Amino acid sequence: MKKAAIYARVSSLEQKEKRTIESQVIELRRQVLGHDNILVKEYIDDGFSGAQLDRPAFDELRADLKTELFDIIYFLNADRIARNVTYQNLIISEILKYKKKIIINGKDYVENPENKFTLTVLGAVSELERAKIIERSKRGKQLKIKQGFVMGGTFTYGYDYIPRIGDKPGRLIINEKEAEGVRLAFHEYAKPETSINQVVKILENSGFRTKTGNQIWHRRTLLDVLTNTAYYGEKYYNKQKTIEAHNDSSDYLKTTKKKIVKTDKSEWVPVSVPAIISKELFEKVQKRLAWNKKNYRNPGKPFLLTSMVTCGVCGSNYIGYRRKTRNSYNRNIIYHVSYFQCLRRRLQMKHVKTAELLRCSNKQIKTKFLEDTILDAVQNIILNPEQLKKHVKLLDKDVQHKQVEAEKELQKLENAIKTMEYKKSRVVDLFTEGRLPKPSYITRTQDIEASLIALQQKRVNLIRSMPLIRQPALIEENIRNYCEYLKRKFVECTDFKKLRQFLLEVIDKIVFKFDDILITGFIPVGINPDFYDYCEPRHHLRYL
Q: What's the whole-model pTM score?
């Protein structure tokens, strides 16, 4: 007698409601008893598609493969493992890797050419069956749309969906409370002096909530309302479609990915619904949106410290932006001023003060002032060994504190390595599932590998540096060599791109909190001044 587990799955909600999974479980239990085995665990995914591998019970099963919980796993059919043949072979290979026995439809599966062929044929039949179901479903849906039916699942602000009852088709009816919000949004934005952000505040002040009941109206949500043709009585279907894009590579491997593309307007299928506003008002709003899109008045501008500054109050990123300012002496002169501002604070300014938001009180700072301050700190402190030495944590007097800090840093690196390894496995899964083309897979894998190697090297160097806690002379020598190396690099920063790359290599993070600017970075371990690919002991300097 061996320890056995069973896996059962149904995909549709209809199957879930009819409890068709119970018949699978009963049959699998019968097979376990018929083979004189002990059933120790049941893995059941009720209402999960076999087209995806990320299913709760299935994930648990794959995790338990590494344990001694069971010796045999039972499946009713191959398509219960997965619909895709490639997925089936991957999972079976993984099960066999951990020396677990596989029973499919009551038969012992052994890794040999005959069974692999049988499994491939069964999997291909399952794929064909699924493709036919999808095709029939799409064809039926398109036929109903052409007959003027409103399809189920419609979730439009301003309307309530009444599902089909018997032969009476589903339909949309006006939700009067939400319809007032729709009319208010269109009438306000039709005014030339009213901006999108002002309309957002008007809706929030008036007490209108989104379809999900949220008090906050985001710009994207409002734009979806202002561009929805259903409000003047015409709801369109077939506005987009999913296509497969193939990329042929030189090693005979064809990669496939799915993407959503917009269909030509001539292919759209209109369905009449109750109108909330006039078509004239809708067209007026569309003209204004089109004009604003064409005449975008604040184009993006690269900033030297982009992605490097964080808020010391709420932890959000600081972003750079420009705004127009008038000359105080001559009001006809208008010029742009650049600022760094907390992203959370910037977003909260677009909503009313009573909005349910996590708020931040940190102030903005002029980009020029922040950049000049950082460059001054780099030249006068980071490039100066005597000044930099004052800010290195390993040279603190409290030896026990230094040891604790080093251990915390080591734990952070180990967590970062685990995260990067998970990202790597996720990219492999996406490529295996056909959701990631090969060129992107290669590029992302190489980037992850490079980051993983760097993190691992940092970890090794940090472990080596821990004995240096009691050797301040050796640390000071590393600081001098590091500063000499940085001076040579800094001289080569003759343009914006090179200077930004230099700062990205030298500075780990810039934290701005009210009037304080905190800069953190790393100093390499090693006495060779020409080798500074990886950085280890953290230098921690504060510039006020």
A: 0.51
